[in-house]
Amino acid sequence: MKVLYQTRYNIFERKGGDTVQILKTKEFIESRYPHIRIDIDSDPHADLSSYDMVHIFNMLRPQETVLFMENARKQGKKTALSTIFWRSTEFERHGQIGLRKWVNRMISYDSMEKLRGLYRYYVDGEKHEGTARLIRAGYTRLQRDILEQADLLLPNGEGEIELIRRIFRPEKQLEYVVVPNAIDAGIFACEPDAQRRDIVLCVGRFEPRKNQLNLIRAMSGLSYKLVLAGTAHETQQQYLNAMRKAARTADVEIVDEMDHVELQSLYGRARVHVLPSWYDTPGLASLEAAVSGCNIVATTRGTTKEYFGDDAYYCEPGDVESIRKAVVAAYEAPFNRQLQENILSRYTWAQTADRTVEGYCRMLDRKEPEVSAG
């Protein structure tokens, strides 16, 4: 089987959770199923003649996804879609900063996305047919077109499918296989050592959606040290400056993005990992931190409760006091080994690979291959 992965053009320049998801899914499928080969190409006009199917990622950027979908349909190839979907209305109206926040409060969600499309088309270099269509047809319409054309959906959780049904009310039955977000157990799993854990940690891109600014505010007055690890895109320098300014009132250290080896060491120092995002599905850093011996504070938005159940501490992203209380509760509690065991048993990249291949074979009406003994 030969599969082509297609996703946003800046997947490697502006890295995020979807970057890790794509690379790790490819790595583990090819290692577990030697007869499956995967290529990655963001060309919306790619020649698909040598591929059995196309796997497309991310409904949140429909201006690109719809072009991949239509190219596959034109060339007679079936498509699987990793939805990576959440509706960000609340974030745009309450979690954004500056002028964008106030404009978003006065207009509809689709109008908001059209404005973003106009910015991308005329300012951010995304001057292509997909962005022009988003501006003309609307964000929701483009997402609905994508759903109608996809042969199989691969959401990260049941919550994504429920939200898709509620928003789009699709006429056809949605064929889907839940494929979990995951961790590399060989890198991050370790025994907790409470004696050397004395920091609160947050790993993630520095941006309003990840909500580090409210986390810094929540830490003010607490005796814990907060370490923020990540990087800010050039469009988020205003937010990073606001973080630095707020950090003067608390014990906060801001460090650059790290590789897996450095990150493993940082997780080993943390007693608590916090991701108070405006939405997450569920946040790869939370999964990594949990198996690395940290208690977890997670947002109530997204699919976090589907993954962590009662084994995490939850906070309201817009409520600084809620974040503070969750951090204190998690810091003062003993390590929750049940959460670590649950993630290791259910949310590893090997399982992600197996569920993804199960979906491919179902869609192509093929017998599932056996996992390689090697």
Automatic annotation (TrEMBL):
EC number(s) from the headed UniProt entry: 2.4.-.-
PANTHER family: GLYCOSYLTRANSFERASE WBBK-RELATED
Organism name: Paenibacillus chibensis
Domain Glycosyl transferase family: 195-334
Source lineage: Bacteria, Bacillati, Bacillota, Bacilli, Bacillales
Enzyme type, top EC level: transferase
GO molecular function: glycosyltransferase activity
Keyword Transferase listed: yes
Keyword Transferase recorded: yes
Database matches in Pfam families: Glycos_transf_1
Protein name: Glycosyltransferase
Keyword terms of this UniProt record: Glycosyltransferase, Transferase
